[in-house]
Each structure stands twice: as C-alpha cells, then as structure tokens.
Design goal:
Elements lengths: L5 E4 L5 H12 L3 E6 L2 H12 L5 E5 L5 H14 L5 E4 L16 H26 L5 E6 L6 H4 L13 H20 L8 E6 L17 H17 L16
Helix pairs in contact: 1-7, 3-4, 4-6
Amino acid sequence: MTTNRIVLITGANKGIGLATATELAHAGHTVLLGARDPERGAAAAAGLTAQGLDARSVRLDVTDPATVAAAADLIAAEYGRLDTLVNNAGVARDWRRTPEELPVEAVRETYETNVFGVVTVVNAMLPLLRTSPAALIGNVSSGLGSFSFLADPESPIWEHATLLAYNSSKAALNAVTLVYARALRGSGEGGIKVSALEPGYCATDLNGHSGHATAEEGGRRIARQLDEALAGPTGRFFHAEGGTYPW
C-alpha cells in the first residue's frame, strides 16, 4: 500500500489493533482508530499524532449498530471514502474453560462481537468502500478457526482445540470472509477484496497476556498481510508466519 489510504480499524485503542494502526500510520496512511470508549480511543490517537502521524479516534462499538452508523457518517463527511477496513475487534470468553463449563450466554456474547459485529461494520461501510479505487476488507481471524487445525491432533496448538466459543466464532468468521469475498468480487470501482488475517499468538488482554509474540509483532504481521491481500487475489486466509492456511 504505497499511496495514502483511509484505513478504519475496529478495536484499535490497544493491543494488536493499536499496533496495526501504528504500523499503517508510519507507512503514510490515514488511520481511524475505532474504539468503544471515546476517552481511550482519543488517548491512543493522541499517542500517534504526537509522533506526527495521521490518526484520529472514531467512536465505534461493533455490537452497537447506532455507533457503527454514526462512524460511517463521520467518515463519509470527513473523507468521502474508505480504502481499507480491518475488523480487528474481538473477544474470548472461554479461555481455560471446557465446553461444558462455558455458559451459552458467553457463546452468544462472543458471536456478537466476533461474527455479528463484523457483518454490522462491513455492511455499514460498504458504500464508502465502493468509492475506493482499490478497496480491501481484512478480517482478523485465527488458526484456531481453521477446520484443518480443529481436526488435527498433531497440530502444535492442539491444546487450544476445545475453546468452544472462540474457535467456532473464528471458523464462522472465516465463512463470512469467503461469502463476502465472493459477493463483492465485482463491487465498486475495482472490486472489493476480502481476506482473513492472522496476527499469531500474541500476548494481549484477550488471552491474559499468555501469547508468545508481542502485540507489536502481531501488528507488523497484519500490516504485511494487508499489503499481500491488496496485491493478490481475494478470499485468502493468511498465516502469521507467512503463506496461507487451509480453510
């Protein structure tokens, strides 16, 4: 992504979302930090603007359609288009809990953010994405949502195969990604590309900071995958270490 792009990242006031925003802003792009909490979002954006980077906070709760619609209106009024949408916001409510220990309410809550929230944001931002000459949607997923992984007891991350809500929500997100990739292939000026991204197992609030990589490493990986997704075909599932996953 060598020319300036307008980029919206959900869940961007901390962790991998903020690290991704930092990478893209340093690359010369205008970065909009979607955040549920306006104060935290503003503080995160201020940290970037203090470095001379082009960033601003946008109030956006993916589980609240009113804030999503308001964010779309703001972007339309201020920028007139959206080039890249990164659906990064996510939750995990079943860390270290077996499927039988997990209340069904926690599964619903996970899907509200990880799946339904993505659909809400994509649909609200589509009119803006269609005005971009090269639009891209990147859905932050996980290898834990790969059916190939879930069926492979020899996988190095097999110990996490029983995360009912998180893994199944990411598998659903992968299906959502493929559906949009097919549906939006001819949409807008140059079509809208849609792919799934993976930052790797990073130490964040989502997993109690148990990951092996840093959030900054995850942000660099997502930024690299966005470049690859824009340059290549639609509908891919990128691996944190390079290459792609089997769905």
